[in-house]
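Handover notes (outgoing to incoming on-call)

Open items:
1. Maltose/maltodextrin transport system permease protein: sequence verified, structure written out, both below. Nothing else pending on this one.
2. Nothing else urgent.
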Amino acid sequence: MARERSGAAGAPGGAPARPPLPGGSLAPRGSVAGQAAKTGMLALAAAVALWAVFPLYAAGQWAGVGVVVAATALIFYVYLSKRAVPAKYLLPGTLFLVAFQIVPVLYTLSTSATNYSDGHRGTKEQAIDQIEASSVERTADSTPYTLTVAARGSSPDGETVFLLTAPDGAAYAGDEHGLRPLTGAEVGPSGRITGAPGYTVVPPSQANARSEEITDLAVPTGSGTGIRSSGFSTAYEGRSTLTYGSGCDCITDSRNGRVYTADGERGAFVSGSGDRLPQGWRVGVGLDNFLRFVAEPETRSSFLGILTWNVAFAAGTTAMVFALGLGVALTLHTQHRLHGRTAYRLLVVLPYAMPSFAMFLLWRSMFNADFGLLNRILGLDVDWFGQPWTARAAVLIVNVWLGFPYMFLVATGALQSIPRELVQAARIDGAGAWQALRQVTLPLLMVAMAPILVATFAFNFNNFNAVWLTTEGGPFPTDNPMAGATDLLITYTYRLAFGGGGAQYGYAAALSVFIFLIVTVMSLVSLRRSASLEEVHR
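Maltose/maltodextrin transport system permease protein structure tokens:
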């Protein structure tokens, strides 16, 4: 009986003791749940690895396969090992840092050293196939196909693909990469394909909207042959007028005998007179994209002008939101007799609580020259977005209005952390309100706010939404539609990469590297200078 009472009281608080495991050890609480969570996470890691490896293997990306296998092996080693305890906490953040920070930076750097752009996306072999397929002309013995315009994937907005039915009833899918058999296709009585796994048939209304894309699409089928559309319901396989010769490494135009020789440095086929075919291939160009900033007069002037305005925009926005936010915070902090201070604080924070993209669009309509609210209330007739300086002023006004509430919140918190006795002691010693602010409050305030100001400058240096949703970078000079008066480097990069004049991914990547270096250098210098403010606390 004594043993029973002693055993019952052995656990803290009188709780029953946990049953011993073989060997005399006690089962740790939550061990089953912990093992289940670990097993689930490792199973998820394995599933993600399998999902990533198969497409890389199919595309022949052996480096990518090796990286996925190595990362998965590292995850299993760390979480199955009993010794690598610190790594269990560091590994997830490290992997995400590498995947979402280091890899994009390295990819941007590698892209900046190439001619990657429209017409220079793939390999030389792919360029040859496209050149031959795009010059296909119908001949008397051309093979006819029944055509169905489709899109890759489950949405009709995907990449355009030709679903083709041959005269013998065989079904194929064709795009710019070539023709391949189509399994599981549903063929209607007219021979048109009504459905196929992995594709969505494009309705006639949407096919009309992408008629130019359909007309330009050429499906390479072999040496000197290709398939082109003839309307939206038929296609034909014809012969190319531009054919490649491996002996001369050149393209010959059978219509006029002109020869285009391969230029490996430019990644294009160039004739003796300097003309070149629009389809080329991707090659390394070294520092050529970076040298464009100084070598080409038009590019140099655009880049320097945009850079100057970019720095002024970021610095001006940072200075104004700091002054306005701090001024409002000081007013509400020092005026103790002011009634309704809580309500005022709520009103000041409202712009920060609103969705920024909606506010930019709202302000854009308010600055409208014809029916904008500002011109009507103030009785003005100003074309805000029609002149460079008024457009810049409008962008600054909108950005400051949206940004100062955040600075107000930071300044309010920093002011409340400063002991009132310090300010009172300065006033007793004879310092005026301005002297107390400048000599006591502001130095203590800057210890907390200096890193915030650096972050605000870096954010506004790349504030894409503020410009794109308000002015879209305009107004533009008549002789240069690519560089506007309010363009930042980030909007200029976006227009180069995705603008209507043709994508220049390599040049845009080089510009992105410049932006990265500029922001990094300015941030490091600012943080080093602001570090001296910490001497205030010593």
